[in-house]
Amino acid sequence: MTNNENIKIQSSLMIIILLSISFIVMAFVLEPPQSLLKGLLDIIIAPDILLTDYIAVGGIGAAFLNVGLMGLINSFLLYRFRIHMHGLAIASIYTVMGFSFIGKNIFNLWPIYIGGYLYSRFKDLEYKSIFLILMFATTLSPVVSEIGFGTYLPRHIAIPAGILAGIVIGFIIVPLSAQVMKFHDGYNLYNIGFAGGILGTVITSLMRGFGININTQNVLSYEYSLHLCILLIIIFVMFIIIGYFKDNNKLKEYRKIFNYVGRTATDFTQLLGDGITYVNMGIMGLICIIYVILSKGYFNGPVLAGIFTVVGFSAFGKHPKNVLPILIGVMLSSFFNIWDISSTSVIIAGLFGTTLSPIAGKYGWIAGIITGGVHLAISMNVGMVHGGINLYNNGFAGGIAAGIIIPILKIFEKEN
Amino acid sequence: MNREMTKISSITKELINYFLMHDAKDIELKIKVKEDKTEINIHSENIEFTEEDMENIKSLLNVGREIENDEYYCQVIGVNSEGEELSAIGVMVDEAKIKWNKPSLDISLIRKR
What angle do CA B14, B15, B19 make, to 5 degrees? Predict the structure, then answer.
């Protein structure tokens, strides 16, 4: 590792650390310490099934505290393992921080990390070589909470059982995610969500077999929408400014980003540099905000999770040209079907539906718009299959959609 | 097949896809598995290749090894038959040499264990 790389790791990590500290400071400004601790405890013992908005569960201060702590914990681990802060690492940490508003917390991530560690020892792999996959694999962390705190089992049995389930998930998720990649040819960016959906379906089916019912829920907050919107605008404008100052003489090359299809190995930090990447992250964040406002939706935990995930993946494949057709497709189709365009479920189907942006990148606007519509229909239905224990429900839906759409689109490809 | 050989297999598959996508009329592939590293060489005497392709491939294959992306990128490459994942190969190899002598192209990669 060169000195320059060391500096790069420092500066990219510093942005995340500062963002995490900002969330913690805001938490203490918004609520007194006692209330924060109670809220954080409520978040930890909540079953976390989709959709569980931590702002509604523990209050906005506790939710911010959880997000900030999750950012700091994962930043420390990234630093400890000397992981380069390139596209995949940026995508993974923003995804984790986003989902720390709706299901990931400082308790339920550890069993999955421990399971992954055991897998790396068992297969004689370096732990850091699978750590980023494990960060995404915390999509199934609600399993830990649901078994630990959501069943009728006595706590002294339920909590160890939940932890054990998380360890087993961490142990098997890496080979499982490799297996399912083939189904969608890499056109579903949230592949771990697809793997998590399949594994979650198996776990939920087994639990239902024992009489433990798991069903999706709708615990949402609405009262801080304007404040959260303003906060997001500030963050994303800052990203654009940071990007500008990182390499200002290259910003005219921004439009080069539109040449990339955006499939699963499109690392903009490597291909175009950190400056253009941060500008793209900021622009994409602002596009998401406009999308939510046009949909007349609320900014709450799930919507923030969606926006942070899109922004993270804007370092790893997403850009306006391949994302907009999907968002338009979701909006257009919601005009013609039974779902309310302004509901949180439909809005996050659009935000997370951009997991399919490589289809728009490869096959164009019309294919992207149709894909958005198909994705919305699937995502509104598959949650009940895994009962909401897979947080990346849209990654699951996106995998199914891509697996069906890609072979059909290939029929119409020219042979030469 | 162990994980390391699976990764070598994925890298070679992606390289072959790349050459075929560039209308290579003949392809020679050589893999040397050694104790401490694996050497991969792919060569075509007749391939459609441009200056832009050369610049692109040079930057993508020389990004430097990143252990942390090994498992994830191993899942990605070789899956699609369109040879678009060269950047993933770049982070999975320690050295890359590209020789282009129109119309022949030769790529040598070294991946240390």
Answer: 120
Among residues of chain A, what percentage have pLDDT more than 90? 70
The alpha carbon of residue A92 is apart from the nearest alpha carbon of chain B, in Å, by 12
CA nearest A1: which of A76, A83, A88?
A83
User: B82-111: string of b/e by CB count within 10 Å (b at 16+)?
Assistant: bbbbbbbbbbbbeebeeebeeeebebbbbb
Is the pLDDT at A3 greater than 60, yes or no?
Answer: no
Chain A residue with Cα closest to B20: A416
Q: Who among A81, A126, A181 is closest to B76 (CB)?
A: A181
- pLDDT per position as a tens digit, A60-89: 999 999 999 999 999 999 999 999 898 999
CATH of domain B3-112: 3.30.565
- In whole angstroms, how large is the CA radius of gyration of chain B? 13
Select the residue from A117, A181, A185 to test the B interface by mutation, using most B Cβ atoms within 10 A.
Answer: A181
Res. B97: pLDDT tops 90: yes
CB-based contact B68 A177, cutoff 8 Å: no
Q: Which of residues 72-101 of B touch A (CB under 8 A)?
A: 72-77, 79-80, 84-85, 87-88, 90-91
Closest CA relative to residue A66, chosen from A93, A104, A17, A32? A104
- The full length of chain A comes to 416
Chain A residue numbers touching B70 (CB-CB < 8 A): 126, 129
Q: How far apart are CA A88 and CA A191, in angstroms?
A: 13
> What average pLDDT does the segment A119-148 reach?
93
Q: Which among A83, A186, A261 has CB closest to B68?
A: A83
Can you give the pLDDT at residue B82? 60
Residue A416, pLDDT > 60, answer: no
Query: What number is the ipTM of this complex?
Result: 0.82
Q: Quick check: A5 pLDDT over 60?
A: no
Q: Which residues of A touch B74 (CB under 8 A)?
A: 178
Taking the Cβ of residue A123 and every Cβ of chain B, the question of whether any pair is shorter than 8 Å is answered with yes
Instruction: Give the pLDDT band (50/70/90) at residue B2.
Output: confident
Query: Where do the structural domains in chain B lie, given as residue ranges?
Result: 3-112
- Distance, CA of A67 to chain centre: 13
Backbone angles phi, psi at A261, to 5 degrees: -60, -40
B62 vs A: CB within 8 A: no
